[in-house]
Amino acid sequence: xxxxxxxxxxxxxxxxxxxxxxxxxxxxxxxxxxxxxxxxxxxxxxxxxxxxxxxxxxxxxxxxxxxxxxxxxxxxxxxxxxxxxxxxxxxxxxxxxxxxxxxxxxxxxxxxxxxxxxxxxxxxxxxxxxxxxxxxxxxxxxxxxxxxxxxxxxxxxxxxxxxxxxxxxxxxxxxxxxxxxxxxxxxxxxxxxxxxxxxxxxxxxxxxxxxxxxxxxxxxxxxxxxxxxxxxxxxxxxxxxxxxxxxxxxxxxxxxxxxxxxxxxxxxxxxxxxxxxxxxxxxxxxxxxxxxxxxxxxxxxxxxxxxxxxxxxxxxxxxxxxxxxxxxxxxxxxxxxxxxxxxxxxxxxxxxxxxxxxxxxxxxxxxxxxxxxxxxxxxxxxxxxxxxxxxxxxxxxxxxxxxxxxxxxxxxxxxxxxxxxxxxxxxxxxxxxxxxxxxxxxxxxxxxxxxxxxxxxxxxxxxxxxxxxxxxxxxxxxxxxxxxxxxxxxxxxxxxxxxxxxxxxxxxxxxxxxxxxxxxxxxxxxxxxxxxxxxxxxxxxxxxxxxxxxxxxxxxxxxxxxxxxxxxxxxxxxxxxxxxxxxxxxxxxxxxxxxxxxxxxxxxxxxxxxxxxxxxxxxxxxxxx
Length: 625
Description:
alpha+beta
C-alpha cells in the first residue's frame, strides 16, 4: 500500500519556521486591486457599470473580511503568530503536491496480466433514490426543472475506459439522455421559444408498460446575430491540477473557446491556488494571442482556495458587464471549491444573487480523482448554468465549440416542466431520471422558484414509463376514505386543452394521454410564460422512431449500470438492439446534416456520438463478463 502525501497548509509557527508551505497565502484586498490594474493586459472602461447599485461581489467581499477578522479575534491568531495576511485558511485545507497519489489499492489490470496499482476512487456523488411508479389517481402531476447538464455521461465513460464500473451515484440518466443529439426535425414556430416533440410506443424492457418520450428543442443561433459575451475564466491552478487530463486540458479547452470569440466579446481570467490572481481583465475577444499566452503560461502548484477567487471572478464580471449580452463565469476545477472563511451557504447566496442580475455560472469538471461531482453540479444549478465533465479534447470541443451557441447564449431561463397524466387512460407512471430536479407541483407557477437554463440549439429529453389503465401491472396507490375530489384548483394559471363537446357542454378529455406544460422566462425577464401541448392516446405506434429507440437504449444502459429495480428485461444485448436503427439512420444522413465545420473539415458530430456509445457498450460488456 502506498500512502499519498498531503501537506497540511496551516499558519503555524512550525510551518513558518520551516518554510515548507509555498503559496499558502491570500492576496490582501489592496494587493488584489493592484493586481487587477497591473496584470490586466487590456481593460474596457466603457463596459463598467455606472449605476449606483451596490456590487454584489463587493458586498460578499466585505462580509468575508468581517468573518476573517472575527475568526482571527476568536482564535487569537494575530497575537500568537503575528500574521500580516488579511486571511487565514482553515486547517482542513491542504497544499496539493505534484506527486500526490492518495491511498492506492492493488487490482488486476484489465488490459494485461501484470500486477498494477490504481488509486482509490476519491470522487464524491450524492446518493439519490430512483423514481418509482406513481399512481395517477394519487398524483396526476409530475413537476421538474429542466436540466441540460451532461457531466454524468462523460464521467461514466472515463470510468469504463479505465476498466472500472461507475458507482451508482455517478449515473444520472437524464444527463446521459441529454448528452446526445436527436433529430428533432420540427423547429420552433415563429415567435416561439421551443418546438415540442412527443412519441408514445411500447417499453422495450417491460411488456406491461409503454414508453413516452418528451423532447423540446430551441432554434440554432445565427452567429452573425449572436449576443456579445463577457466571460470570466475561473481556473483552478492548485498542485493537484498537474496531471495531463487537468490543467493542460483546461488550457486547451479554453483556447478552443477563445478562438471562436471576436472583438465584441470580453475575456477575463482569474486563477486560484493558495491565492487568487487576476491574469486578464476585460480583454477583447479578438486578442487571440494575448489570451492564448495567458493560458499557456499557467502552472499547477500550491493550495486550493477557490472561495475567495470566485468573488474576484464575479467582481470582474460586474466590472465588464455587457447590457443585453451573455455575462458568465466559467469555473474549471478538478475538485471542490474550498471556501476558506466564506461558508458554502454564502457561496450559494452569492451565485444566486449574481444570477438574478444576469451573471450566470457554468462549471467544467476535470480529472479522474478528487472530483466533487455533487458540489460542482449544485454550483452550476444555483448559477443557472450547465455542468459538464471534460475528459478529452474531443469533449472540450463538443462543449465549448460545437455547442458554444447553447453553452453561452441563453434562450430561456427558469424552464420548468409539469406533465399532467389523464387517470382515464394512465393507471400509473414513472419518470426516468431527473431525481434531483424534482419540484413541488405548486411551485410550477411560482416565479420565485428557479428552473433550468436552456441555450440556443439545445435539446431537453425526458422519458416516462407509463402503465396503461387496462394493464395488469400493479401500481401502488393510497387508500382513500372520501374518494376523489372533483373540480380541483388549476395550479397552472391558464392551460389550453384540446377538447371536444360531448353534447351537454362538458369537455371530453377521454382521448388524451397527457398534457405537457412548460413555463419559462426570457433571459432578462422576471415573469414566466406558459406553453402547453396535448399527447393523445392515438399517437401510439408499435414502431419507435430511430431517436426514441436510441434514447431507450441510453436509458436501459443507465438502469443496467445502476442495477435498477425497474430495469426489467434490460440487458446489454437489448441496448445494442435498440441502438441499431439509429446507427443505420446516421449512415444515410446527407452530408452537412448534424455536422459542424472545424477548420474546413466536416465532422459528423451526431454520428460520432452514437458510434462512441456503441463502443462504450461493448467495453462495458467486457467488464461484466
